[in-house]
Amino acid sequence: MDFDRLRRRAFLALLGSAAVxxxxxxxxxxxxxxxxxxxxxxxxxxxxxxxxxxxxxxQLHMLGWIIGSNLGTDYRWxxxxxxxIRRYAAELVALRPDVILAAGGSHVGALQRVTRxxxxxxxxxxxxxxxxxxxxxxxxxxxxxxFTNYQYDFSGKWLELLKEIAPRMTRAAFLRDSTNPSGAGQxxxxxxxxxxxxxEVSPINSxxxxxxxxxxxxxxxxxxxxxxxxxxxxxxxxxxxxINLAARYALPAIYPFRYFVSAGGLISYGPDSVDQYRRAAxxxxxxxxxxxxxxxxxxxxxxxxxxxxxxxxxxLGLEAPPALLTRADEVIE
Length: 333
Hints:
The protein is α/β, with parallel strands linked by helices. The chain has 2 domains: about 35-150 and about 270-300, Rossmann fold; about 155-270 and about 305-330, Response regulator (Rossmann fold). The chain is about 45% helix and about 20% strand. It is built from 13 helices and 13 strands. It has helices spanning about 5-25, 45-60, 80-95, 105-115, 155-165, 180-195, 210-220, 235, 240-250, 260, 275-290, 310-315, 320-325; strands at about 35-40, 70-75, 100-105, 120-125, 145-150, 170-175, 200-205, 225-230, 255, 265-270, 300, 305-310, 330. The strands form 2 sheets. The protein has a 7-stranded mixed beta sheet, with helices on both faces. It starts with a helix and ends with a strand.
């Protein structure tokens, strides 16, 4: 075989392989799009929701998950409406996400009534074990794990702090979700603390706005009343209503999150919810990479803050004790 023929064969072989390269590159499998469902008790337009989800998305981005590139998201927000909670839980599961971020015990419970296989990462759950969402904090054992935001001893602390800033208080109402197991447990702790503080405590259930308004009006019909707001989806969604009612009836009130105080509430003691959404992104990342919720221990809030609004205190005729202000993480003038 002469040299020219060899060179021609080599050229044709090279040309043929070059023609195959683009086909081969197109045949390479694309990075699969993963999907995350987001199921929250907020209304869509709530500014807090935007802040929380921005933190969640930013953390996912830092972990390599780019929405629209390798990650898709499906959102459902309920405003705490029980019917929407049931309907949207079924809708989200039907979309077959790889994992669902769920806020609040009512939303986790609704999801688990639909599926025990789709992984769930929860935030803002008071009692994951009592709610039946996990077998134990250290060994969840099912399809859910995440972050709890309250221990029961917090409930007694709420009453202590409210009594400290409003020492004349002899009666207090505890605004709770009677359908949530944690609401009953928290109320029990408050009752136990009330005896030593000389305060009579009664519950107000938060099924609807009318019930809450009637309960607060009845509390205010007698002197020396106070109000404790337990963490529940109604109170968080309707926080402006509750803050305005406390102001209208001149009731000292303590709230579970600092954003109540920023909006005009008197005092708050509770965890940093933004931090939970940030940390939840890490759990979602681990599940997307193959870990199981059953093997990821539930974590508790590590950032607990006390906030006081002095403007509101003055409007109520209260003087915040210097010792309380010294302990406060934030004082709003």
